User: Which sequence fits this backbone?
């Protein structure tokens, strides 16, 4: 099944290159830009790194109330008066948790506007074999779900800029200009296993910022290290992992899922991913599908390389999980 799926995606990429959108024929950049600077983090009486954990048992409505309280209390400085981009997960239009839950995206948009955001847009660029992204956006039902609450942006329809970085494996990343111009970026990720990168969460969500033509060499070698290094070019300011349901085997497009009843929130992507990985590992162990996963999150190349190159912008060591409220 997996080999058949990979062959199908390869054929799709070949069709895209020769018969697909123009974006797959030539990489056109409007110039270069410096790496994006993250917003100043909320002022705190200490320098403790926190990952907030919300109990999301039951309806999305009940979880939304808790999420509103958390965002308004701890992260209002990233929201009030700002032009916000939500970077969501739409690798394919497959149902949640393979892709974003349209109702979760709508709920988050409404909360941000209620908390004083000047405007909210939401964007991604799907897998190259399914371009253009607007077809997947429509298939996923996002326009109907959003009902004008946020402007839906398809990155492959947008201008691009190239950002030089000092990675071990990547020396530049070409990203959407619209993302670089956002005042606040909120990463809305799902919790999933991944057939190539093993795990996908807060850090790997940044792949959706990368120009489709650059994703081809991305997957040739050192994929997990390169995934981490994309975040040197375009880090988000706040990370939310919608782990109400997690994909615990297969992935990212299809696989076995299990209820996790959790939403994780934090401003340090490595800390958020460490906690998400632990949650995923416990679900995999409970369902007898460890598939080589280790109890040590840093056994995953993606996470230990992110640690080594300083992804997150502040210490992750000793991060603390805080139940909210």
Assistant:
């Amino acid at each position: 099944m997996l080999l058949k799926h990979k062959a199908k995606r390869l054929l799709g990429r070949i069709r895209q290159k020769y018969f697909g959108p123009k974006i797959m024929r030539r990489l056109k950049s409007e110039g270069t830009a410096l790496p994006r600077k993250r917003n100043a983090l909320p002022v705190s009486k200490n320098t403790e790194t926190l990952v907030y954990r919300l109990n999301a048992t039951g309806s999305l409505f009940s979880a939304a109330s808790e999420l509103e309280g958390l965002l308004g209390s701890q992260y209002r400085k990233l929201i009030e008066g700002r032009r916000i981009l939500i970077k969501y997960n739409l690798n394919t239009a497959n149902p949640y948790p393979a892709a974003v839950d349209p109702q979760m995206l709508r709920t988050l948009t409404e909360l941000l506007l209620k908390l004083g955001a000047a405007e909210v847009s939401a964007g991604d660029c799907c897998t190259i074999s399914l371009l253009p992204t607007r077809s997947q956006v429509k298939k996923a039902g996002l326009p109907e779900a959003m009902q004008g609450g946020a402007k839906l942006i398809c990155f492959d329809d947008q201008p691009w800029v190239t950002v030089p970085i000092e990675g071990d494996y990547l020396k530049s990343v070409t990203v959407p200009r619209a993302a670089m111009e956002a005042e606040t970026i909120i990463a809305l990720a799902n919790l999933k296993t991944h057939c190539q990168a093993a795990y996908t969460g807060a850090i790997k969500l940044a792949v959706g910022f990368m120009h489709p033509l650059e994703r081809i060499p991305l997957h040739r070698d050192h994929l997990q290290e390169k995934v981490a290094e994309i975040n040197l070019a375009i880090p988000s300011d706040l990370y939310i992992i919608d782990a109400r349901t997690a994909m615990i085997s297969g992935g990212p497009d299809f696989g076995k899922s299990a209820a996790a009843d959790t939403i994780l929130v934090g401003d340090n992507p490595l800390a958020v991913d460490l906690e998400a990985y632990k949650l995923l590992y416990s679900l995999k162990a409970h369902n007898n599908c460890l598939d080589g996963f280790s109890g040590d999150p840093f056994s995953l190349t993606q996470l230990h390389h992110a640690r080594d190159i300083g992804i997150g912008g502040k210490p992750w060591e000793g991060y603390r999980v805080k139940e909210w409220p």
About this structure: Residues 132 and 234 are 22 Å apart (CA to CA). The two ends are 43 Å apart (CA to CA). The chain has a mean pLDDT of 93.
